[in-house]
Every structure is written in structure tokens, then in C-alpha cells.
Amino acid sequence: RSYSVTGVQTCALPICWTFAALAGQQVRFELVNVSADGVAFDLRGPNGPFGFTNLTGSSGPVNLPADGNYTLLAHSTGIAYDIAYAFRLVETVPTDLTLGTAYSGYFSGSGQAQLFRIHLANSGPVRITLANDGANNQTELYAARAAPPTRGVFDVSAVSGSGANRDILIPSAPAGTLYVLA
Q: 107, 125, 138, 141: which sits with the fewest CB atoms below 10 Å from its CB?
């Protein structure tokens, strides 16, 4: 699911949009275009501020903590007037992978995230390998069990140093669902 909004601001900020979501959904804010500096965005949840505040660019993945209504607020960072902007709020939908089967996909641009879900029938070691053949690409790999990982909340990661290829080894992964963010 993707929510796209283009806002042409010709009156005083703030302006807000609301949407309903379930606990555990993961979204990403993408600032598509802005005509001038001076506008920032906040994400607020059912229990108040959450996700990001004073964001002036795109965000990384954000896990929504509770069922309910969320508000995305555009506001001035100073004396902003007559600012045109466009953004997308995109739900990150996991792609199911079968253990032991290779997946072939692609990144469409810089900063793109892909979320995968692996169902582990038995406990045991799990190796996750990202082989990226793009010249000069830089990638990050995160894994978590309880909920989809983000760049800030994860169980294990492979992000250090330059390079396009990443590898995670989990020596004793319990049975259940494993989420992987590339």
C-alpha cells in the first residue's frame, strides 16, 4: 500500500494527513520534491509523537507500534510560505522467501529498502547472503525475529565497511519467522 500526496502550500503551515494502520506495519516516508527549504515533517501515532520529528528529507523504515490512527504533519521550520512539496508514505510489504531457495531481485535506486520474511520450520543455523553485482554499490543487511528490522532496531546486521555484498550467520536461529531488511 502506498499513500502519495502532492502538497502545494499557499497558506500557513501546519497541514496534516491521517491514516489508519495496524501494529507492526512498517512504513517509509519518501520526500519526492520540495521547492524551497523551510518545511519539515512529523509522524505522530495514537499515543503522541513517534517515528520522526522535524524530518526534512526521506526516512528509513519505521515500525508502527500500535493499532490506530497516525498523523503525518507538514510544518514550517521558520517563516515558510508558498512552498510546493510532494511526498509518498509507502508501506514496506515483506516478500516471502523459501529457506534454501535463491531470490533474484534488484534495487531501483539509492536508499531503497527491501523487506523479506523467512519461515523457519526448525531451529538451527541460518546464513543470509546478499550478492549485489552493481558497480560501486553500498548495501546494508539487517535481521530480526520479533518484528521487521530497521536501521536502528535489529537482532543482527552486516553493515560495516564499503561493499555491495553482505553476509549474516545466525548460529542458532529458533523456529518461527525471521525478517530480513536489505
A: 125
DSSP result, the chain: -EEEEEEE--SPSPEEEEEEE-TT-EEEEEEEEESSS-EEEEEEETTEE-S-SSB-S----EE--SSEEEEEEEEESSS--S-EEEEEEEE-PPEEE-TT--------STT---EEEEEESS-EEEEEEE---STT----EEEESSS---SSS-SEEE--SS-S-EEEEEEEEPSEEEEEE-
Comparing 10-14, 34-38, 71-75, 157-161, which segment has the lowest mean pLDDT?
Answer: 10-14
C-alpha distances out from residue 86 to 17, 83, 131, Å: 13, 10, 34
Neighbours of 156 (CB within 10 A): 17
pLDDT digits (tens, 9 = 90+) for 25-77: 889 899 988 888 888 999 998 887 778 999 999 998 898 888 888 889 888 88
Place of cell 533474484: 104
How many residues would you count in the chain? 182
pTM over 0.90: no
* Grid coordinates of 52: 520522526
Which residue shows C-alpha cell 515533517? 41
